[in-house]
Specification:
about 425 residues; alpha/beta; UDP-n-acetylglucosamine1-carboxyvinyl-transferase, Chain; 2 domains
Amino acid sequence: MTYKVTPASALEGEIEPPGDKSISHRAVIFNSIAHGRASISNYLEGADTLATVRCLKALGVDIRIEGGQAGAGGRQTTRLTVTGCGIEGLAEAEGSLDARNSGTTMRLLAGLLSAAPFFTVISGDASLSSRPMGRVIEPLRLMGADIRGRDRDGFAPLAIRGGGLKGIEYHMPVASAQVKSAILLAGLFAEGATTLHQPATSRDHTERLFRAMGAALTITENVITLDPDPLTCLDVQVPGDISSAAPWLVAGSLHPEARITIRGVGVNPTRTGIIDVLRAMGAQLVIGEPRESGGEPVADITVESSRLEGVEICGDLVPRLIDEIPLIALAATQATGTTVISDAQELRIKESDRIQTTVQELLRLGADVEERPDGMIIRGPTPLRGATCDSHGDHRLAMALGIAGLVTRGETIVIDPEVVDVSYPGFWKDLERLKAG
């Protein structure tokens, strides 16, 4: 399947992005093992988050999916009702759990099931089975879990026999929100406190939601300590996903005739690297109507046509925008000067090798871009020409290519465009609606 994108004469309108993927996963997992009943509104009904729901249902959790209210542009939202059963209410699944393409599902459930007193196998698709799992297996084993993986315990499927955990003090070798969350989930049901030392700050949705649900959590700089304590169910209004707002922030910055407002976006400081970088590049961004939802900061963002300049992106900034780097690389092709992206080797173990695939597809479009082991160098501005491009089965890259098509000369064809359903099922519809003004 392919999707044809033609250049837009102007981009104008309002977008309400789908619910945040990271928060959607966490809201349903945490409420499933809490006590009480919770409503989760604006839940992202994407391939990854629905994989999480199916796995939890297979473990005996009562989760009901209902339609919600129509958002901006007529987007129908989704509401879940979750009856929490605590760790003691989970039951051994009849078969293996299928995380499909979702690393979040596999890693977070690995932490949770390390505390459950039964046997579980978690599998996934070919892409997920090629992503490293040793980084989550090691600390969970140190806590006492019997957890094994394929190829010398490095990859999925994972076989877990849980229970009998003890809290640990653990120095994380890389800043990973998924690994951190897996350890904290296991730590909820361990004997004694669990302390994590992070090498850098990663997204903190788990910490925020744990605190809102009553967890005994203390944070001092990059050190997190959790004392075992049951969670209480909490109603959650999931903010719009900043990663799903990012395509429109870049589109509005790049296009010469653009004004786009994105409503209800989560602006958690651990996730707003895309905003910081675009502003450093000279993007005209206005953040208004600040508010809070479920412990998460939310705002509306308006972006207008901008003149961009190259920047350097490295160090602690990278974990705050790791999912947006394909879009930033696209923006850099139209910026004056050189943009250098480094310390981003984590991109090589995403849904695709995002360093290699982003460089490859931008070269097809005529960009001046050079691959480096831990990132890339982009020189601009360079006029882009339409071409047939491959999403490589990666939803983030597919969206970046769609945005590129709005500013190229000639048509851009995106192969395998439906992969955007992982995080943004209505992406192509919203793209066409903005073109229509």
